[in-house]
Amino acid sequence: MVTAAIAQGSGFEVHALTIDYGQRHRLELVSAKSISERLGLANQVEIALDLRAFGGSALTDDIDVPKSGVSNQIPVTYVPARNLVFLALTTAFAESAGANDLFIGVNALDYSGYPDCRPEFISSFAETARLGTKSGVEGAPFNIHAPLQHMSKADIARESQRLELDPAWSWSCYDPTSARTACGQCDSCRLRRKGFAEAGITDSTRYLE
User: Alpha carbon 60 to chain centroid distance?
Assistant: First the structure.
């Protein structure tokens, strides 16, 4: 949400790609569509790529989402190569649309330690996209923008406020309740709540507790 608004503020016409990968927190798909409409994006394309066929993650398999606190280890909520897959699909989407600027909302400060959120991965992928696409080899490489990469969650909360975005439009929780509220205890909820608290900004998201 914040990344899309930043892109718009920088003068880009935003075409959003949402990927239904079989994630258990399916409310993020509803949220993505709503955000696209609220921000007046040029369009939003949703595609299905069911990663439950592979499993290996608490987000796509029958594995409990950990709720004991954020650790220094890569958590079981890591989805194998997710951002690598997502960026490959986004590159294909961009090339087919004649676009050369890709935006991704990864964050490498207050996060769960996922390797595919790191700056070195993003820069490496930009080179891969240059080498592996018609646009790249014909001299029109892709620019990958990660405006939130070096922000803390508190910085992102402040940016959301500056852009006049309602936090409740977005969805972060990995394990929502049947009442469509955030669990408040998964890594994503903990990091989100910590960021808003540190920024001194009210998070309008509904939490279980």
Answer: 16
* Residue 112 confidence (pLDDT): 73
The residue behind tokens 């299905």 is 48
Q: Using CA of residue 196, residue 197, residue 198, residue 199, what is the dihedral sign?
A: positive
Residue 174: pLDDT band with limits 50, 70, 90: very high
Pair of tokens at residue 177: 């309740």
| 207 pLDDT tier (thresholds 50, 70, 90) | very high
State how far the Cα of 149 lies from the Cα of 76, in Å rounded to an integer.
Answer: 22
117 touches 106 (CB < 8 A) = yes
CB 91 within 8 A of CB 134: no
pLDDT confidence of residue 205: 93
Which is it for strands 101-103 and 15-20: parallel, antiparallel or unpaired? Answer: unpaired
| Residue 58 CB neighbour total at 10 angstroms | 20
Instruction: Write b or e for each residue in 142-173: b if 16 or more Cβ atoms lie within 10 A of its Cβ, otherwise e.
Output: bebbbbbbebbbbbbbbbbbeeebebebbbbb
Q: How far apart are CA 129 and CA 110, in angstroms?
A: 27
CB-CB contact of 34 with 4 (8 Å): no
Beta strands in 29-111 (DSSP E): 43-48, 101-103
Residue with tokens 């006049």: 164
Q: Give tens-digit pLDDT for 82-125.
A: 999 999 999 999 999 999 999 999 998 877 788 999 999 999 99
